[in-house]
Amino acid sequence: MTEFALSELLRPELAELAPYLPTLGDFAVRLDANEAPALSGPELRERLARACLELEHERYPDPTMVELRAAIAQRMGVAPEEVLAGVGSDEIITLLMTVLARPRAGAGGAVSIVTTTPSFVMYPQSARVRGQRALEVPLDASWDIAPDSLLRAIEISDAHLVFVASPNNPTGTMASLERLERVIEGAPRALVVIDEAYVDYADRDQLALFRRYPNVALLRTLSKVGFAALRVGWLVAHPELVTAVDKARLPYNLNAYSQKFATLALTELYPSILNIVESVKRERERLTVELGRVKGTLVTPSQANFLWFRSERPARDVFTELCQRKVLIRSFHERGGRLSNQLRVTVGSPAENDEFLRCLREVA
Ligand SMILES: *Cc1c(COP(=O)(O)O)cnc(C)c1O
What we know:
Strand order of the largest sheet: 2-8-7-6-5-3-4
Oligomer: single chain
Largest sheet: 7 strands, mixed
Shape: globular
Order of helices and strands: EHHEHEHEHEHEHEEHHHEEHEEEH
Distance between the termini: 61 Å
Structural class: alpha/beta
Number of strands: 13
Bound molecules: pyridoxal-5'-phosphate
Strand content: 15-25%
């Protein structure tokens, strides 16, 4: 009998991929994951605890998420039929890749997605683990999208699915509206997903594009505004797409606690989100100024809850020496090239930001 070899069963792409793992370890200040600072008081915890007492834990959660989708729809000014919630927007990304993975003859039967770089790593990661190709089109020198290159990549690969994070992670910049429109109009055979994970911190949103174009969908999440623990994100899409994605969604994907807490976060507890957003935006302005004064740094103006900055010294060294001081941020030096000196820091509480600045001044 031939011997069992797991490697002959596994997708070959897996050999080149690593699991998504945040840096582990003991840090006094963690500004690496774009979470919101812990600003909410005991009242919020008590309200959530009371909500737990009311849940029927013997029963499956509401499979259609009526309450949560109504709360999202109300908050955003869309219809509940245009909303589908998932285990973070991460899950929605994978669901879209599942339902839109139709091999295209023009591309030799390959399935491709197109996105930008640098951007959110889960787009290429989730595509590749499914055996799909991911074309990553570089942002321009001011970290804006490059519409001509994107359209060319879409055309060459015959991609079904395009992801544009706006505001973008890790650059904190928004795609300029006119360029985004050019991509949407130039790619009528693809769905353009605008990932608005950070839009609560931005000056504008892109809901009007969803309204105007049949090939646009949006992603939103509660993760960056104070409720990362819930793992709740959602898709805003035209009902025909929502219906299709719903067929691929696992039954009861969102547990009852997440559904309930997320509904509360978007209704009764919404003032706490507004409070976080206001406070972080204030701190972002202060941090932008102070960071800009640190020797050799160049800060990109941010529309998100983090700052993207260039350091004079290699990002690897700055990152490592901050870690030694128990301050964790994100470095992108492993991707090399123009990212070798780029770092990303989440806007934290005033005290966290001060400690980060103090240590950065020592190592910059
Ligand atoms: C953090 C992030 C997400 C993931 O959000 P979850 O809802 O926590 O899965 C999606 N897109 C971008 C661009 C992000 O930075």
